[in-house]
Fold this protein.
Amino acid sequence: MAEQRQAAQIPNLLSLRGSRTSRGRGRGHGSPNLRSPEESREVTESVKDKIVQQTDQDASDSRMSAVSLGYLEDDFAAAFSNGPVNRRYPIINRGTYARTTAIDRLVDKFLSTYPKEPKQIISLGAGSDTRYFRLVTSHPDIQLLYHELDFADNTRSKINTIKNSPLLLKTISSHTDVDSIQISADGTTLTSPTYNIHALDLRDLAKDENIPNLPNLSKTTPTLLLSECCLIYLPPSSTIFILRTLTQTLLPQPTPLSLILYEPINPHDAFGQVMIQNLLQRGIHLQTLHAYSSLSLQKQRLKDAGFTGGQEAADVDFIYERWIGKGERDRVGRCEFLDEIEEWRLLARHYCVAWGWRDGVGGEGGVFGKAWGDVEGQDDGGGG
Ligand SMILES: C[S@@+](CC[C@H](N)C(=O)[O-])C[C@H]1O[C@@H](n2cnc3c(N)ncnc32)[C@H](O)[C@@H]1O
């Protein structure tokens, strides 16, 4: 079958990295000595966590590759990238472009809602994402309260980069008083009235009690939750409880609340199987992939999580064809030669963006629904 042939030929999509030994995030993990079964389990868990943390380097390298070739404009990506650019395959660069452009569009629409009020964005597993810096530069007049959550190893690395980058520091300080920026003694948390980086294992939000305090989080500001390739790494039950804590405890009704997710789908076909195997070889387990394997299941998940105002989803192939105008697609096509159109489309059908919302109590006239009303969702006919 053609699809199996293509699947067998797809590259190990995430193995296209250069040497990462000089990246300096304490990535090495030596072989364990003799340990009790309990200790061994802990070691295994911490090794798994390290591998998940390292996926941020892949995201960052992919961003830099797409920026260096002109797919995307991002003045801040280079600050988070060490050494030479690890150039990705053309289909990966196009995927990075489509994903970033799609999320940017939805975020812009979110920022257009509730025009007289400040907005809050909470990015789950933000890693070294540059979106905060890009947003405050492109929307200088918006009152934005931004929170990024990630493991302490990743937040420490990001804060360290910020401390050593005049460009990043200048960008933060042009939106907040420099004296109000606080960095914790261990260097893992940064707080300010506008930009906050919290060291947090998201699984701590899945607990019933002792929910960690997130300094400067507003319980009432219209909020967007963003999970760009993050919740996929957690067990489905944890993600349900994490979303419950966010939607009910940290951001309870009637706070207007919305969520954008980007993650892989379609594990069942030959391409999906190869994608899973490639990642498993690196110790990466896409834990929610089977639970939310289709656009319909992603939409149902958003509804179940309380985003009852509306839910939409589209795969990246659809997004590239339908959201991006011909002129822009022509421009992207000129960034580099891509003749593997079938491979690109196959790859792009295995990633999706899903978005859902709940407006504040009192009806507010479906503010999010209106803002996102002209963003075309895709109907997969309810398949799982
Ligand atoms: C593939 S990276 C994506 C980074 C960023 N969102 C982007 O798209 O550029 C996944 C991120 O999720 C974070 N992450 C995964 N599980 C997490 C958890 N339990 N707690 C905190 N962060 C987590 C990882 O550390 C990593 O930074």
In short: The beta strands are 119-124, 144-150, 182-183, 190-191, 195-199, 223-228, 257-264, 310-315, 351-358. The radius of gyration is 20 Å.
